[in-house]
Design brief:
This protein has 106 residues and is α+β, with helices and mostly antiparallel strands. It has three helices and five strands, in the order H-H-E-E-H-E-E-E.
Amino acid sequence: MGHLQDNGYTVETKLVGDMDLAAIKTEHGVPGELQGCHTAIVEGYVIEGHVPADLMARLLDERPDVIGLAVPGMPAGSPGMEGPNPEPYNVMTFDSQGRVAVYAHR
């Protein structure tokens, strides 16, 4: 949340139970293999997990025909998971046809 606020986003937090969060992810079409610990809706796109703010901005600028972006898991070095040993990770797109593709590599 701090990462998004630091990058100019207004964040509204809603705490929900695990079962409710799973239902939200399913309702918004997040594939199981891409699910992370956070789900956000930004201008109609789903943002799943620790997605960097600059890639959210790119998504909103480009407006591709996808449901959203996802960073599965909690990779070291992703926003909110900074530390001394960052690891490479992919930011993925997913669409309503079940297609998943690499949007960026960090």
